[in-house]
Design brief:
It is found in: Cytoplasm. Its EC number is 1.17.1.8. Belongs to the DapB family. It comes from Mongoliitalea lutea. This protein is an alpha/beta fold and about 240 residues long. The chain folds into two domains: about 130 residues, 3-Layer(aba) Sandwich (Rossmann fold), CATH 3.40.50; about 100 residues, Dihydrodipicolinate Reductase, domain 2 (2-Layer Sandwich). The protein has seven helices and eleven strands. Helix 2 packs parallel to helix 3 and helix 4 packs parallel to helix 5. The chain is elongated and about 65 Å long. The protein binds 1,4-dihydronicotinamide adenine dinucleotide and ligand LZUJQKHR. The site of the ligand O=C(O)C1=N[C@H](C(=O)O)C[C@H](O)C1 has 9 residues, from helix 5.
Length: about 240
Amino acid sequence: MNILLLGYGKMGKIIAEIAESRGHSIAGRITIDNMAELDSLAIKTIDVAIEFSQPEAAVENISWAISRGIPVVSGTTGWLHEKPVIEQLTKEKNTAFFYASNFSVGVNIFFKVNRFLASLMKDQVDYKISMEEIHHTEKKDAPSGTAITLAEGILAEQSRFQRWTLDEGQAIEADSLPISAKRIDPAPGTHTITYSSDIDDIEITHTAHSRKGFAMGAVLVSEWIQDKKGVLSMDDFLSF
Ligand SMILES: NC(=O)C1=CN([C@@H]2O[C@H](COP(=O)(O)OP(=O)(O)OC[C@H]3O[C@@H](n4cnc5c(N)ncnc54)[C@H](O)[C@@H]3O)[C@@H](O)[C@H]2O)C=CC1
Ligand SMILES: O=C(O)C1=N[C@H](C(=O)O)C[C@H](O)C1
C-alpha cells in the first residue's frame, strides 16, 4: 500500500515504522507545518490515508481525503460530535471511513469485558461506579476517546446513569458516571473502572505499555480496508 499520513507526530511516526516494516510505502507525512505538500501529491497513487492529528484538525484532514475518494483510517479523538458530516461525505463519495477511539486489540477486548461487567453489576446498587484515565501531559482532550467509549458501554447497561461527567472536583449528580482524567508522563494510556462498596471493590484496568498496539492496529485495519466501502469500526474488523 501507498499510505498518506495525515498527522506525523508520536503516532504517525510509529505507524510509518510499522508500515514500512510490512513492505508499505509512505506517500506523504503531513504535519501542521507542511500542509501545502498536499497540493503536490499524486492522489491516484494513494491507497489509504491514516489520520492521527489533533481534535481541531481532524474534520478538515478527513474531508480532504474522503472528498478525493481516498479511504481514511482515523484515530484522532475529541472531534466525534462532527462524525455525521464525515459519514455523509463517505456515502456521497462511495469510499471508506474507519474510526476507532482505540486501535489496540487489548483495549477492544477490554471494551467487551467492561460491558459484560457492567451488565453483571446492573442490580448491584450498593456499588458506586467510577472511571479513571491516565495519559501523558501532551494529550489535548479529556476525557480520552477510550474513556468515552468505555462510559458508553457502561451507560448502555446501567440504567442508573443518564450521562458521564468529567470529574474536576465539582459535585457530580447521582445519574452521571464520573470520569477523572490525570495527565502524568510518560503514560501511553491507562483506563480503570472501579465498582466500590463498603464490603469490597471490583476493579478492571487496561494499561498500554507503549503506543505500538495502537499503531499496529491502524496499519492492520488499513490493509483490511482496501476492498471495503462505507463507515466501518473495530466491530467490523475484529470477529469477537
Ligand atoms: N485511536 C487510537 O488508538 C489512538 C488515538 N490517538 C489520538 O491520535 C491523535 C494524535 O496523537 P499523537 O500522535 O500522540 O499527537 P501528536 O501531538 O504527537 O501529533 C499530532 C500531529 O498532528 C499534526 N497536526 C496538528 N494540526 C494539524 C493540522 N491542522 N493538519 C495536519 N496535521 C496537524 C501535528 O503537526 C503532529 O504531527 C490524538 O487525538 C490522540 O488522542 C493517540 C493514540 C492512539
Ligand atoms: O492521546 C493519546 O495518547 C491516546 N489517545 C486515545 C484516546 O483518547 O483514547 C487512545 C489512547 O488512549 C492514547
